[in-house]
Specification:
It comes from Anopheles farauti. With 308 residues, the chain is an alpha/beta fold. It has nine helices and 14 strands.
């Protein structure tokens, strides 16, 4: 816009400069000044005015697309998927020490995961759950059998059995890498978001999904708690942090803090509108809940079939 204004002024000044300096009467001077302003304005097109809004949008987009952190050379990351439950599991490892952790494993994929871990030469140190799932049975218990020495991990507030229970801001270490457990209740009381600050990533479980969130109509669900967890804990992470949910049903794989703060159709609402929305979703009763929740209370040690 500034370039167009300068161009307009130069053109008008060239045409009128001599007249401005030789006018003998004040009225004539005013006329020329008005003509000068009018002519300059004609060079500032209507699209220039629109560009102010466009510039704001562009600035927001640039902020939203701030460079993600690059994984360090000794950090391994692999996203895995279970088609039946639309669950993402995440294998992280220290490449130097070969110590690995697995987030949100699924019972039916435990053999696949154990094989991959063996092929890569890793040792599974921890099998963690972001919460006590209601849509699938965790693979944690089976992995403890397949890969002896694996330690099962879940929130102390989950009500589930595990070898290790986490509280807010507690950390687990694999090799030199550190994962911080951040309490984010709302979908369930025991929901946690796992953050690896150095790599700029967080695993949000069912608390925050891509352009959505977990339901709050069962398992101690509370819409206000979920809203507070997202806005006060997850949305306060750096905006370029990459977010990885426990599920997706539309083929999306990851998002960022900035994207969800701007585009999440549920969590961009104020808290009252969010609560009203969540209270009126009228979702069907979860198909797996009566099997999954009792099994997951035992951290996957319950009713493991001989062949999965």
């Amino acid at each position: 816009m500034m370039r167009q204004l300068i161009t307009g002024i130069r053109r008008v000044a060239t045409a009128t400069a001599s007249a401005v300096f030789v006018l003998p009467h004040q009225n004539q001077t005013r006329s020329v000044v008005r003509a000068f302003a009018s002519s300059a304005a004609s060079y500032i097109k209507s699209t220039t005015t629109c560009s102010l809004a466009q510039t704001t949008t562009l600035a927001q987009s640039v902020k939203m697309l701030d460079a993600r952190k690059t994984f360090t050379e000794d950090f391994f990351f692999r996203q895995l998927f279970d088609e039946q439950s639309h669950t993402y599991s995440y294998l992280l490892a220290d490449i130097a020490t070969k110590e690995a952790i697995l987030i949100d494993p699924v019972l039916e994929q435990a053999k696949r995961d154990a094989q991959l871990i063996g092929e890569l030469g890793f040792t599974l140190k921890y099998a963690l759950n972001t919460h006590m799932h209601a849509d699938h049975v965790t693979g944690t218990g089976y992995l403890k059998q397949l890969l002896p020495g694996t330690v099962s991990v879940i929130s102390q507030s989950s009500g589930a059995k595990a070898d290790k229970h986490l509280v807010d801001d507690e950390t687990v270490q694999f090799g030199r890498h550190v994962l911080r457990a951040m309490s984010t209740p709302g979908h369930t009381n025991g929901c946690m978001t796992f953050v690896v600050e150095e790599q700029g990533i967080a695993f949000t479980g069912d608390t925050l999904l891509i352009r959505g969130c977990g339901r709050t109509d069962f398992q101690e669900g509370n819409s206000r708690s979920l809203y507070r967890s997202v806005h006060e804990r997850i949305f306060t992470l750096p905006e370029n942090f990459r977010l990885f949910p426990a599920h997706d049903y539309k083929g999306n794989m990851e998002t960022t803090v900035a994207e969800e703060k701007r585009y999440n159709p549920r969590l961009t609402k104020d808290v009252e509108a969010f609560v009203e929305l969540m209270d009126n979703l009228n979702l069907p009763y979860p198909k797996m809940i009566d099997k999954a929740v009792p099994a997951n209370r035992e951290c996957g040690l319950y009713d493991i079939p001989k062949e999965v």
